Amino acid sequence: MSIFGFLKKKKEINEKEIVSKDELSEWLLTKKRQHQEKEKEFFNLVKEIISQLVSELESEISILEDFNFESKKVDLRIKLIVKENLRNYIGYMEKMIVRLNEIDKRENLVEKINVIFEDFNKKTRINYEKVTFIIGKEMRATKESIKKFFKDLELILKSNKEIFKEFGIVKSVEGEIEKLGEIEENKSEVSQILKESFEKINDLKKSLENKENEIKEIKKSARFLEEIKKKDKFDLKNKALQGIVRELKDAIDFKTLSNFYHKFENDMNLVKQYKDDFQQILERDGIQKLESLLAESKLINENILELINKIKRVVAEIEGIIFEDMGIHFLEKSVERVKSEINTNDSEIKIEEKRIKNIEEHLNKVVGAINELLSKIDVEFLEK
To answer: In this structure, which of 140, 211, 322, 378 has its CB flanked by the most CB atoms within 10 Å?
Structure first.
């Protein structure tokens, strides 16, 4: 297709496209294929006008090389300067032609062309000015050829403006779609974590309910009521024991006892301990040790002896109370542990729910960006 045939093609009237989320990937692939074809067509057109320019420049080089300097009545020194600058100018033209012919890729095509001509103009500006002192028409022809080339290139670019715009938008949409996929994958992972957390918390609540019901059933049993009676009896006996122990302490003459043992360091230390913390030392060493100290010091009277015997009897009764392990303590510990796990899971769920909310906000922004981009090329995006 010639350049002018391409430019004269009727502009197609595009109806507004509607693309759903499920169709978007396929739509992008189709657009990319279309763009590749358009890029190929654009590249071929540019190569065509490059070829035309190269042909013209080569003809103009031949004309410049054959220029008859003898016909010009100017100073010989000026002729030599012009000839030297003409050789340089032609040399740069030939290098430019080589570089133009080497263009074989569509990427950054216009930028490459601009760089080639900017480099040529920069290097030949002085040469051109000096050569045109003698050679005017022939030199202007090269400028006109280049000018015509850029005019044709500009026409091609203008006619493809909307296509290039669509190229850029589709590429941007592709980037947003990639983001969308990553966000949705992240959302799926967090949703799965939430699902597992809810399932776990439901299992924990069922376990808690079972354990609490088990405790209730145990507490309603005859065996448990019997254990309560034992506990009440144990408490009464223990309270009675503490009272007898206080009576015994009050009945002991610690001053006389200290005087008796003051020469015996170990016994004296023990007497001091009884005096300062009677009940604790009695529980630690037992009644027999105290009884021995009192007997040796001749401080046991009928009242003290009776109190000692009462203590022995009550201790024996307390030791005779045997509690049955009904598993309530273990179950209550399990209940506390399960409650703690439920609280931990509740906290984790709140964190993941916040993450989901942030992800959805990000998702909405990306979907909004896709909508905005597609609307610029008359495409409506349906999220669902």
So the answer is: 211
